[in-house]
Amino acid sequence: MHNGDILAVQDLHVSYGASQVLFDVHLSIRAGQLVTCVGRNGAGKTTLLRTVAGFLRPTSGSILFNGGSLIGLRPYQIARMGLKYVPQDKRVFSDLTVRENLELASHATGDYDWAPVVEHFPRLKQLLDHKGGYLSGGERQMLMIGRALLGQPSLLLIDEPTEGLAPGLVDHLKDVLKALSRKTTLVIVEQNLPVVSAISDKIYAVKEGRIVAEISDPQAIKANVCERYL
Amino acid sequence: MRRVLRWWSGIFLAFLVVGALRVFMPLPFANEIVILSIYVMGCNFLLGRVGFISFGQPAYLAVGAYATAFYLFYFGQNPYLGILLGVLAGAVVTFLIGPFFVRLRSDYFALVNLALAVIMYYLMEKVLARITHGDNGLWFLTRMTSTSGLDLTRPGQFFVFAFVVALALWGFYKYLDETIYGACCLATKVNEDKVRFLGYSNLHIRWLAFVIANTTTALAGSLYAIYFGFVSPEITSPHRAADPVVVTILGGVGTLYGPLVGAIAYTGMKDVLSRVIVNWEFFVGFLLVFIMLAGERGLWDTLEQVLRRPRRIAGRPWTPNS
Amino acid sequence: MDPQLLISGVIFGLSMGSIYFLLAIGLSLCFGLMRIISLDQLLYYSVGAYLTYTVQVATGNVWAAVLVGALVAGLVSLAVERFVFFRIYARDITFTMITSFGVLIGGVGAIKYIWGLIPRPAAIPIQAQAAIFGTAVPVYRLIVIALSVLVYLGITLFLNRTITGKAIRAGIEDVDHVEGLGINVYRLFTITFVIAGMLSGLAGGLHAPLIMVDPQMGLNVLAFVFMVVIIGGLGSIKGTLISAFLVGQVTSLGSLVYAPLAQMAPFAIMLGILLVKPTGLYGSKFLKR
């Protein structure tokens, strides 16, 4: 663990009622990195992100964001601090238009500059007056990430962004994520290994609630070494 | 033989308490407690084991009470027969409406039951006023005959009867708990899909539970009828809808002794408070809120934690959200 | 049937529907956003009615009294939200329902304590009658109907045009997502709850001149309001409007046909609808059980 970490998680234990899901998790993430968490379904990756974002309370351990503890804070407080969470469910507000979806995010953060959002997702500009319920899966994913970008977050947690998307879209999204990481630290849960190896600066392998590998070597990342830990 | 004794020991202990009450407290108090605990048993079972809350228990109380009343007022004189008819009426009514009610989501179920209680009230008060005599109610205290065996027209012997009935019901519910059916009830409360995958029908499980629980309530209604010798629409007044819920929660949802503990606590409180505060409803409401905020485990669990030993004899109560 | 009777029946039904509607939107919104069944709204209805009576007796001005009633009801609901509901939003729906019932019962007890048990008459502000299609109809009832239509429009505007309203609509879909954007959803809850409380108080204040104000009034109306909400479906404003007026008309016109059964008709309708659509006409299927 380094002192310059934007996000430092230590000794984290999380349980759902009586059953423990995360055991002794450590994460060390520096600003500007693009970190991915890989693992099978049910390994605990989503639980990890949700705990960091404040939706779950850990039974023990510490979560430091820019040196300050996140434990006990409400999710909206954490979001306001610059740590945004994009869930994996691909749900936008279906009764609201794309414009209104973005307006909500702007209102919450005070950031009404949509230029960066449109720059990464030009398609959204054409969809502004469409209701969320009529968007395709890929368009919804774009909107979800676009919404989270407002307010210039310093850390984005994204849960399975490429899941269920067509290959062309996956490619596009991969480039967008890479572009985003130039200005924002990204922590991404991903199961698509080619994408993982293409964009990650660091990979954590999660298995049955534990971190079983931490890979920072670019060669190892390219070679998909993480696969053997799953 | 020893196993049978041990199985019953907890219940006997509990009823020893009730018996002691009979000795030390005025008879009306003891009688009220016993009938109330029968009333609440059904609600407790429904809420704790099957996961349904009902704000309309008074409706089923009325079914039993009025069935008994009709018989005793218009037809016969034997109180035992009256009770039997009350129970039958309860069973028939709940059997018929069961399938409609148990399909509902739990919040809708609660409210639909409340609506039923209101409808019953309205039915008895106005619509069927010719036969129910509306607000004046049906009086049949003097019509009941003194039967051989236990004479139900005398409060002291009534108490013995009610006591035995309650005891038997307790045994029944405890037995139910330990059968496969009891496990099914719990299962259907927790995970509907799994139950279906196992080949059981959620509807049937709940339907049966509904019938059992509310027939018990109807029985309580019949007992109230016999005890007071009088039935009026007041028995199904929606204002009384909260009572069984409060008592259930007071005693501890889903616990075996909850109804008894809750009944004692509630009746005691009501008795004491109504002497001191004219409108103790405020207190009941406040108490309910307080209990909900503080913890839904009820008195029994708290008592339990204080006295360790009874846990072994009495069996483990099951709290739903542990 | 005598057309005069029919028309006054319709108006009567519409005015009752209006009262039910005002009560039901609050319930529907609270369920939609916070997933709570706020039975205590019936308490704010009673508070609104009692304050209207008291202020009207003191000042003689009924409209001011209604306003005060709604405001005080809002204040009481604010207090309850902050002290009680705030702590239990995360619990399951049965839990909050029981708690709200406790608040209702306790509040009724408090009302009995403060105002006593005797029903009180509240004066009607306008005794005049207007002629609709040749039938004399109380102007006051027309005003009640008009006010509820205004409220409907107001609520719709609020939900569709203001950012807070949009946040509430978004929250009805998914509260966690709204919170994830950085919006303080607890403030949204409070706002919604207080709006509901004020609307309930308004309903009570408007209803007071039409009936006697008594401690049990909330409980008397409870079942009907819930039938309205169930038929319309929890969480739907449009559904609530439709079913409120449906129930109003059925009880009103039904009593012209055959009085005793009229009160029970909504119950039968409710059961019928629940058989076909277990979550009501426009109800959401969000919760499993």
Which descriptors apply to this entry?
heterotrimer; A: Rossmann fold; 9 helices; 10 strands; C: two-stranded antiparallel sheet
Arithmetic mean of pLDDT of chain A: 91
Order of helical and strand elements of chain C:
HHHHEEEHHHHEHHHH
Uncertain spans of chain A, ≥5 residues at pLDDT below 50? none
**Largest sheet of chain A, described in full?**
6 strands, mixed
* CATH class categorisation of chain A: Alpha Beta
Shape of chain A: globular
Please give a quick description of this structure:
The complex is a heterotrimer of chains A (230), B (322) and C (289). Chain B has 322 residues and is mostly helical.
Description:
The complex is a heterotrimer of chains A (230), B (322) and C (289). Chain A is an alpha/beta fold. Chain A contains 9 helices and 10 strands. Chain A has a single domain (5-91, 136-229), classed as P-loop containing nucleotide triphosphate hydrolases (Rossmann fold), CATH 3.40.50.300. The two termini of chain A are 24 Å apart. Chain B has one domain. In chain B, α4 (79-101) runs antiparallel to α10. With 289 residues, chain C is mostly helical. Helix content of chain C is 75%, strand content 4%. Chain C is built from 12 helices and 4 strands. Chain C has helices at 3-34, 41-59, 62-88, 93-115, 139-161, 163-173, 175-180, 185-207, 217-232, 237-257, 259-262, 265-276; strands at residues 120-121, 129-132, 135-138, 212-213. In chain C, β2 (129-132) and β3 form a beta hairpin. Chain C is globular and about 60 Å long. The chains are: A alpha/beta (230), B mainly alpha (322), C mainly alpha (289). The interface between B and C is large, with 47 and 48 residues.
Protein topology:
The complex is a heterotrimer of chains A (230), B (322) and C (289).
Chain A: E1 5-16, E2 19-30, E3 34-38, H1 45-53, E4 60-65, E5 68-69, H2 75-80, E6 83-86, H3 98-109, H4 115-120, H5 123-126, H6 137-149, E7 155-159, H7 167-180, E8 185-189, H8 193-199, E9 202-207, E10 210-215, H9 218-222
Parallel strand pairs in A: 3-8, 3-9, 6-7, 7-8
Antiparallel strand pairs in A: 1-2, 1-4, 4-5, 9-10
Chain B: H1 2-24, H2 27-50, H3 57-75, H4 79-101, H5 106-127, H6 129-132, E1 138-139, H7 155-178, H8 180-190, H9 192-197, H10 202-228, E2 230-231, H11 242-251, H12 258-276, H13 281-294, H14 298-306, H15 310-314
Antiparallel strand pairs in B: 1-2
Chain C: H1 3-34, H2 41-59, H3 62-88, H4 93-115, E1 120-121, E2 129-132, E3 135-138, H5 139-161, H6 163-173, H7 175-180, H8 185-207, E4 212-213, H9 217-232, H10 237-257, H11 259-262, H12 265-276
Antiparallel strand pairs in C: 1-4, 2-3
Helix pairs in contact in C: 1-5, 1-6, 1-8, 1-9, 1-10, 2-3, 2-4, 2-8, 2-9, 3-4, 3-8, 5-6, 6-8, 9-10, 9-12
